[in-house]
């Protein structure tokens, strides 16, 4: 893997000249805004590595706490990411998700990247599974009931994922959907019900969403999304859940590392 490009001393000096204690705006707000401008303009490209906090604070002649607050603001905005043991990097305007290559949920992928996000449960009800979902889940003809849950995941106040999950009620008859606002579905199934997801089948396609999806994601008409169909299985081959997931293609990029 290539070594990450690092922020040059000249770039840090240029930033320093624009930070002024005499301004009414707090120093951490000045620094975060200046960094945001450079990221959004492309001057600081994706994967650019920032200096460590003590080094950056010394160069800017501010406290380490001031630098930390500025960086935290940009992490919450989805423009920077921190990787344990490696440092702080420019994320750019696209979230990079690796759930195409491994058994990991959207929530777990965001957690791994250090992205602040919010999950909201929009609806949850027991329904009779539509025929295609019943077939994917292998439901018996005498019990087609599933728990249908619709959620959104937002980054910096913007919906980037819309998730529809369908679970056989027999697997989790007393599941409270509200717990999914703070925990991942895979985690709840495993830790609360002893149901471990062993494998998933994921199919991706680019589509124009219908009005219902566009409204739920606050999209302009005609904006395409990445659609993901997922079926999850236990180790014995029994299906655990079926999902329809819509992903904002202008905010999320799906990536994978492949090694021969």
What does this entry look like structurally?
By secondary structure, the protein is α+β, with helices and mostly antiparallel strands. Helices cover 29% and strands 29% of the residues. It contains 8 helices and 10 strands. The protein has helices at residues 9-17, 27-41, 53-60, 64-76, 106-113, 131-137, 185-193, 211-217, and strands at residues 80-83, 87-90, 95-97, 118-128, 145-155, 158-168, 199-207, 225-233, 239-248, 252-254. A 6-stranded antiparallel β-sheet has the order 4-5-6-9-8-7. It has a two-stranded antiparallel sheet with strand order 1-2. The radius of gyration is 22 Å and the shape is elongated.
Task: List the topology elements.
Blueprint: H1 9-17, H2 27-41, H3 53-60, H4 64-76, E1 80-83, E2 87-90, E3 95-97, H5 106-113, E4 118-128, H6 131-137, E5 145-155, E6 158-168, H7 185-193, E7 199-207, H8 211-217, E8 225-233, E9 239-248, E10 252-254
């Amino acid at each position: 893997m290539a070594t990450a490009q690092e922020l040059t001393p000249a770039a840090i000096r240029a930033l320093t000249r624009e930070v002024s204690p005499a301004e009414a705006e707090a120093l951490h707000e000045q620094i975060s805004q200046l960094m945001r401008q450079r990221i959004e303009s492309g001057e600081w490209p994706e994967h650019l590595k920032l200096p460590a906090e003590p080094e950056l604070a010394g160069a800017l002649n501010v406290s380490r706490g001031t630098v930390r607050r500025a960086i935290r603001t940009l992490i919450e905005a989805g423009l920077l990411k921190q990787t344990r043991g490696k440092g702080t990097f420019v994320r750019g305007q696209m979230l990079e998700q690796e759930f195409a290559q491994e058994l990991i949920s959207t929530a777990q992928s965001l957690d791994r990247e250090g992205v602040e996000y919010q999950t909201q449960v929009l609806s949850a009800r027991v329904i009779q599974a539509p025929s295609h979902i019943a077939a994917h889940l292998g439901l018996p003809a005498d019990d087609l009931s599933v728990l249908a849950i619709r959620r959104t995941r937002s980054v910096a106040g913007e919906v980037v994922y819309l998730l529809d999950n369908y679970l056989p009620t027999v697997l989790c008859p007393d599941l409270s959907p509200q717990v999914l606002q703070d925990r991942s579905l895979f985690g709840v199934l495993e830790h609360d019900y002893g149901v471990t997801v062993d494998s998933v089948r994921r199919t991706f396609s680019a589509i124009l969403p219908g009005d219902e999806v566009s409204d739920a994601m606050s999209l302009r008409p005609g904006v395409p999304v990445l659609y993901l169909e997922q079926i999850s299985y236990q180790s014995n081959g029994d299906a655990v859940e079926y999902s329809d997931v819509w992903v904002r293609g202008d905010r999320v990029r799906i990536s994978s590392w492949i090694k021969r």
